[in-house]
């Protein structure tokens, strides 16, 4: 569909505000998604056209959102999800009714403060009947304090000349970008237009079509997606941006002063894409090109798999390419998540667990099985930490957490790592006793192909597993394979898995023992005999194992041990943020003052929550809250609003909510 409205319409739609008042919410969440108030059960969106004008001076975005619906039942109201938007005007039309174009509509809003979300009700004076095509247009403003928009001053960019803005929608923050049926159960195409200063470039998670200058000093960029996506994959970035081609289908975008360095780090991007596509055969990469946009350092997560425009943190741009696996993860989402999507946030493991499995499978193909196994070893540590944080019997330590609230509140690595372990278990039983055929690969491809462009729950995944084994094995074997999967124990119940997978490797054990030796020597004697293995390895994950094991042993470490470790390894000055993530909390716990200046520099350099939240948590836990507040205040304008909110939660929730802090820490340890 073409854009019905040009950006000029924004100015034509004068601020005519009809009957508006905020009300309590008599509305219920959707039957398919308990964190969306949209009435998608009766009115299903199939396309939207979003026009926005980005004003860096006022730090606001003015928008017009036009949504196209199919009426599934007779309906006279349109209910949409919103969050923090100021609604100026709503109109609607119903095709084939002889209505005079867009009709002014009264509207109302309501707030669900517990969930931190709101709803918009548009009252149609003409009733739409089942089968009708309904269109609604909403004029609105994204305010300066939007939870999903990060505004950066020129000083906070690499180039230091131009301002910058980007959005981050997961889990349910797309509704703070535009009124929507903000649910992954709805998959939709969209067209977008972004107007901004002609000195800047705009990007969206859809193919670019044209750009034109329709006002002095302004440029409007147009985008059009042809592939169905869930709302959380809507994304925008506006700034001084340049593009570099990596391979036949792969590109890198970032600021001009850093884009060439980043292109160098990502020189294997095409190889990773090809290898992933090869593994997913016969389901091809359907999105056309693949582009990574490397964000400024405030980006709050490692990566976000927006189709055609993956966002990544520059923290993964290490020259040793040790963090490029994050790109492998986001590429894998092109199949698991973006093509076949979780229907709701309870089923997050379907997106993330499958993606981690595919990512590590590709890592193993590229770097060898031991490399992937050590990633699983580290992942298993976080599974245990998360299970202990949430509790063995808690629904939150299951792959189907039932909380009925904002999914941000229960975010953890469990859907990633426990989900990956479940798929790994399926691999073990499906391939047992033979090596000729990779039945797990065949099953994943069968599942993705069957549900491509759709949203599913684990029930569809389960049915597909049963269907697959019946079609590929004799009756006795199929019955055995079906009986071997206790879906209730794996998915619904919390706590440990019903089958324990072994991810230990000789290298992992050696580095774990190295941590024990540092504790035993207590910093006074010589270093452990094999201490140089840390400096000699080129596998960052092995270094992480040592540091992680030291963290677990914090109460057995002394200040002298810290000084010895720093002398041997220079952890305080290591530029790799994976080191700082473990080292600085350790330094704070042991009051190792030599590291404090660098710790402050660290939380002022990175906005990725995985890296900075452990530092703030360590300060609060170790009675240094005033320092945490000082460091936070110095950086509050740099952090993305989501990260700033997480830090405030850690600092101000207090020890009486200690469990809450632990949850927040887990939640953001490794979002990707
Ligand atoms: Zn992911």
List keywords for this structure.
LTA4H_cat; Neutral Protease, domain 2; 22% strand; 672 residues; Zincin-like; cytoplasm; 21 helices; disordered N terminus; 4 domains; 12-stranded mixed beta sheet; single chain; binds zinc ion
CATH class of the largest domain: Mainly Beta
Q: Helical element count?
A: 21
Query: Which structural class fits the helix and strand makeup?
Result: alpha+beta
Give the total of beta strands. Answer: 23
Q: Can you tell me the CATH architecture of the largest domain? A: Sandwich
Uncertain spans, ≥5 residues at pLDDT below 50? 1-22, 655-672
Determine the mean pLDDT. Answer: 90
The CATH homologous superfamily of the largest domain is named tricorn interacting facor f3 domain
Classify the beta-strand content into a percent band.
Answer: 15-25%
CATH-assigned fold name of the largest domain: Immunoglobulin-like
Rg, nearest Å: 25 Å
Bound molecules: zinc ion
| Count of separate structural domains | 4
Largest β-sheet summary: 12 strands, mixed
Q: Note the gap between the termini.
A: 33 Å
Model description:
With 672 residues, this protein is an alpha+beta fold. The chain has 4 domains: 8-240, tricorn interacting facor f3 domain (Immunoglobulin-like, Sandwich); 241-334, Zincin-like (2-Layer Sandwich), CATH 3.30.2010; 341-503, Neutral Protease Domain 2 (Neutral Protease, domain 2); 570-672, Alpha Horseshoe (Serine Threonine Protein Phosphatase 5, Tetratricopeptide repeat), CATH 1.25.40. It is globular and about 90 Å long. Bound molecules: zinc ion (ZN).
């Amino acid at each position: 569909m073409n854009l019905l409205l040009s950006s000029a319409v924004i100015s034509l739609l004068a601020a005519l505000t009809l009957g508006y008042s905020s009300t309590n919410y008599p509305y219920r969440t959707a039957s398919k998604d308990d964190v969306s108030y949209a009435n998608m059960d009766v009115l299903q969106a199939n396309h939207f056209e979003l026009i926005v004008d980005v004003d860096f001076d006022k730090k606001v975005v003015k928008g017009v959102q036009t949504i196209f619906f199919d009426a599934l039942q007779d309906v006279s109201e349109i209910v949409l999800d919103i969050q923090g938007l100021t609604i100026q005007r709503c109109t609607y039309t119903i095709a084939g009714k002889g209505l005079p174009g867009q009709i002014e509509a009264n509207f109302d809003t309501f707030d669900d403060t517990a969930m931190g979300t709101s709803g918009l009700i548009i009252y149609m004076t003409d009733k739409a009947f089942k089968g009708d095509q309904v269109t609604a247009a909403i004029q609105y403003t994204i305010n300066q304090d939007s939870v999903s928009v990060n505004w950066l001053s020129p000083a906070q960019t690499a180039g230091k000349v131009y301002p910058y803005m980007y959005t981050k929608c997961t889990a349910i923050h797309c509704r703070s970008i535009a009124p929507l049926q903000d649910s992954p159960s709805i998959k939709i195409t969209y067209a977008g237009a972004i107007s901004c200063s002609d000195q800047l470039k705009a990007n969206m998670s859809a193919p670019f079509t044209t750009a034109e200058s329709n006002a002095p000093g302004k440029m409007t960029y147009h985008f059009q997606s042809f592939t169905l996506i869930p709302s959380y994959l809507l994304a925008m970035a506006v700034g001084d941006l340049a593009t570099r081609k990596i391979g036949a289908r792969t590109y890198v975008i970032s600021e001009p002063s850093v884009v060439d360095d980043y292109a160098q780090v990502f020189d294997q991007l095409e190889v990773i894409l090809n290898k992933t596509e090869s593994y997913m055969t016969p389901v091809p990469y359907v999105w056309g090109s693949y582009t990574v946009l490397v964000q400024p350092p405030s980006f709050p997560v490692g990566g976000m798999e927006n189709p055609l425009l993956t966002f990544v943190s520059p923290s993964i741009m290490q020259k040793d390419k040790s963090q490029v696996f994050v790109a492998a993860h986001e590429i894998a989402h092109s199949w698991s998540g973006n093509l076949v999507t979780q229907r709701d946030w309870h089923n997050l493991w379907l997106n993330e667990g499958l993606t981690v499995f595919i990512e590590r499978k590709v890592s193993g193909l590229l770097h060898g099985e031991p490399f992937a196994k050590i990633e699983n070893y580290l992942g298993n540590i976080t599974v245990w930490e998360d299970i202990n944080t949430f509790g063995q019997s808690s629904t939150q330590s299951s792959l189907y957490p039932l909380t009925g609230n904002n999914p941000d509140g229960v975010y953890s690595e469990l859907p990633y790592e426990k989900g990956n372990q479940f798929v790994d278990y399926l691999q073990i039983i499906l391939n047992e006793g033979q090596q000729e055929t990779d039945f797990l690969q065949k099953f994943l491809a069968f599942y993705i192909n069957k549900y491509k462009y759709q949203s599913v729950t684990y029930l569809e995944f389960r049915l597909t597993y049963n269907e697959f084994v019946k079609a590929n094995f004799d009756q006795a074997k199929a019955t055995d394979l079906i009986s071997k999967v206790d879906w209730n124990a794996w998915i619904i119940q919390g706590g440990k898995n019903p089958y324990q997978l072994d991810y230990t490797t000789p290298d992992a054990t050696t580095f774990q023992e190295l941590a024990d030796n540092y504790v035993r020597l207590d910093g006074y004697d010589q270093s452990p005999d094999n201490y140089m293995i840390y400096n000699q390895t080129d596998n960052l994950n092995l270094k992480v194992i040592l540091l992680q094991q030291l963290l677990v042993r914090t109460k057995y470490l002394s200040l002298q041990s810290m000084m010895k470790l720093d002398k041997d390894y220079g952890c305080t000055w290591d530029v790799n943020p994976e080191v700082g993530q473990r080292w600085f909390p350790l330094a704070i716990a042991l009051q190792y003052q030599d590291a404090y200046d660098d710790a402050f520099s660290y939380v002022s350099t990175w906005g990725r929550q995985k890296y900075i939240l452990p530092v703030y948590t360590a300060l609060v836990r170790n009675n240094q809250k005033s320092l945490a507040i000082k460091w936070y205040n110095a950086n509050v304008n740099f952090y993305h609003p989501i990260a700033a909110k997480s830090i405030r939660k850690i600092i101000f929730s207090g020890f009486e909510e200690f469990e809450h802090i632990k949850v927040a820490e887990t939640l953001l340890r490794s979002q990707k």
